[in-house]
Amino acid sequence: MTDARAAVAEAFRAEWGRIVAGLIARTGNWDLAEECTADAFAAALESWPRDGVPDRPGAWLTTTARNRAVDRLRRAKAGEAKLRLLAATATADEPPASDHVVHGDHGDHGVHGPRDDRLRLLYTCCHPALGFEAQVALALRTLTGLTTAEIARAFLVPESTMAKRLVRAKQKIRVARIPYRVPPPHQLPERTGAVLGVVYLLFNEGYGATSGDGAMRPELTREALRLAGLVAELMPDQPEALGLLALLRLHDARAATRIGAGGELVPLEEQDRGEWNRATIAEAVGLLQRALRRERPGPYQLQAMIAACHAAAARPEDTDWPRIVRLYDQLLEHVPSPVVRLNRAVAVAMADGPEAGLALVDAVAPELGDYPLLPATRADLLRRAGRRTEAAEQYRTALEVAGNDGERRYLARRLAELDRV
Amino acid sequence: MDTVSQPTDQPIRYLLLISADEALEPEVISDEGLRRFQEWFADLERRGVLRAHEGLHPSAMATTVRVRDGEVLLTDGPFMETKDQIGGFALIECADLDEAVEIAAGHPAARFGQVEIRPVR
């Protein structure tokens, strides 16, 4: 009984997105696809505990969802053509006997080879004609099966707001006819960038929550990790997809040590490195090495290399800061943004001393405007330089603009330390 | 609602509303501007997607009509007094939004103004 329920839960994680994507491909109807997939899981919850878990749960669910769609279309008197299409593909969209995983060599099976409907779904969700928030919400709903209520909670908006956002996005896909496909080769680079960007920003939103009580929103990072795994699985010949997955796993390996007992953010140098998840790090480094062998570096691979550099240092003082500075130099060639320059300035401060870093921070500050991490970064470097009064002043400014309580607690602690001595 | 949207090969119609700052009109009618426009037009003819296309007189020539309480009210000028104004439109019939975006992006005014793509009911 509980085994059967666990099997349904497991199948939900593994199969939801694939079944929804397949049904959209066959019917062109997003609501129908979601509803029939949900019906199939409801049916599984009823029948698996009673009749046992089928040998191939994915195939069982696919067939059940498809039969439901056929019934619904019959009742809606849909055209014969579409019913035939559903029937004709009855065997084509069953899952492979063994699941593809991210490990192993996929040869040339990339976006130009045999592909999964989930990839079409992902690119369609991330179509630039949809707003970013709609892209993320739609990807979560259709690919991971998060409910509207769960997505609303994750984004701290009322459920009705999220429901409207999802309805509107699906309506626009239908009415404006956003094509359900992986874009043609000449559009792939920018469109793939958008797909990876959605996953990356989703993770960041969870990892360094820009709002809310906690410093982290683990439900967001978890779903971002799942999507990143899926993207890497679906685009095995895109090194940036692997690089992104490696980057997120490396961050995730440290997640438990990033938040202290009092809910405060713990900076890298004070984290308990013994508690970092070494297995996850090793796996991520393996993914990164596979990506790097393609010799097409990009921003996610470079950021993963920086994260791997930190992960490789047994103690903070073992960190190879000059190498990190060089990696930031390379990253700047891909992403010439002031935020990257600010991060590079911190690495320079660690390699060459705080005053060198502060000079670089001052140089980039005008471009950063009121970027909330600017005063916090300045404050830390001033503290390292022993410029206590200025440091305290910057910590106070940082406290005013900090996005979440974890950050505020960290900043308050630093400020108290300066005031105390 | 249990309507079924069709994945269909039927073409879809879009209205392209082309707007820009009217002060930039010299740019539109410059030799370079006209050459770009002709290229765009030739591309549309090659694709066979154009159903209607017109350029408009400036918004200062517009008259806006409202009926309130049975009374016909006229305003001298466009319905919205914004810097950018609609200067022309094209009705196209093509495969999907991606093709409409390609066509819209090829319009010379997209470089300094914008093109709004509206699916036709």
Automatic annotation (TrEMBL), chain A:
GO terms for biological process: DNA-templated transcription initiation. GO terms for molecular function: DNA binding; sigma factor activity. Residues 191-291 form the DUF6596 domain. Residues 125-173 form the RNA polymerase sigma factor 70 region 4 type domain. It comes from Jiangella ureilytica. Keywords: Sigma factor, Transcription, Transcription regulation. The lineage of its organism: Bacteria, Bacillati, Actinomycetota, Actinomycetes, Jiangellales. This is RNA polymerase sigma factor. InterPro entries: DUF6596, RNA_pol_sigma70_r2, RNA_pol_sigma70_r4_t2, RNA_pol_sigma_r2, RNA_pol_sigma_r3/r4-like, TPR-like_helical_dom_sf, WH-like_DNA-bd_sf. Residues 25-77 form the RNA polymerase sigma-70 region domain. Belongs to the sigma-70 factor family. ECF subfamily.
